[in-house]
Amino acid sequence: MRILLVFLYVLGFFLIEFGKSKRINNMISENPKHAYQLGNDIVRKKFKNVLRISGVTIITKGLDNLPDKTALYVGNHRSYFDILTTHVTINRPVGFIAKAEMIKIPFLTQWMKNIGCLFLDRKDNKKALKTILEGVKMLKEEQVSLYIFPEGTRGHTDELAPFKKGSFKMAEKSGVPIVPIGIANSDMVFENNGWFRKIRSTKVYLNIGEPIYTKSLGDEEKKHIDVYIQKVVAELIQELKTEYSL
Q: What is the per-residue pLDDT for 64?
């Protein structure tokens, strides 16, 4: 029943707010920071409603670690609900780095652009570099923060997939901090419900780590920043599992 209610709510949002979406999109070229703020405010309210309909409760640690300025947020990825729960929790303008294939989805793509999302084509190095440089510009100019899932796709086990090193170039080149986030139990909302998928009431746990500045890292940590950040995220997840007996 919840999955039907969520579907109808999201469909209604796309249809009712179509005109507003177009207006925000037209504003991006003139005043991106203001446009992304407006887009984020609207989408965050809708995400909160979807989480309410879904019966999702967010348990958070480390809220004091959220910086007031732009940052590159990174975390593990187990569920579509990772996006909703982190966006609501961060409570600041933040766009996500998404797979290039998602740009083909009508309505959704428009709103993703409205909050500052970028579409990364990992199969084309030239296009990927262009996206990374665009992200660097957005971060440097404090237009919007960005969030990336360095595993590259949703995982289906407790073990983290190797983090992709290119994921961190935007932080290195822009000078903004990397904010690691460990997420636990999000796949229990939808993905880990057997062959007959349904949305069920669940607690999702987020652990926000201290901001990490790449310029403050040692040579080895910089060289293997993918391994270093993955270790930090894994430790944040383990803290949640230990504290909440997950």
A: 97
Distance from C-alpha of 190 to C-alpha of 186, rounded to nearest angstrom: 8
Q: Which helix (H) or strand (E) holds 55?
A: none
152-174 in b/e form (b: 16+ CB < 10 A) is: bebbeeeebbebeebbbbbbbbb
The tens digit of pLDDT for each residue in 156-198 reads 677 899 999 887 999 999 999 999 999 999 999 998 876 667 8
How far, in Å, are 37, 100, 121, 127 from residue 124 at the CA level?
A: 30, 10, 6, 5
Tracing tokens 């579409």 back to the chain, one arrives at: 119
Residue range 185-214: average pLDDT? Answer: 90
What pTM was estimated for this model as a whole? 0.94
Helices (H) and strands (E) in the chain, counts: 9, 7
Per-residue pLDDT at 123: 86
Write down all domains in the chain, each with its CATH number in brackets: 2-244 (3.40.1130.10)
Residue 26, H or E segment? helix 18-27
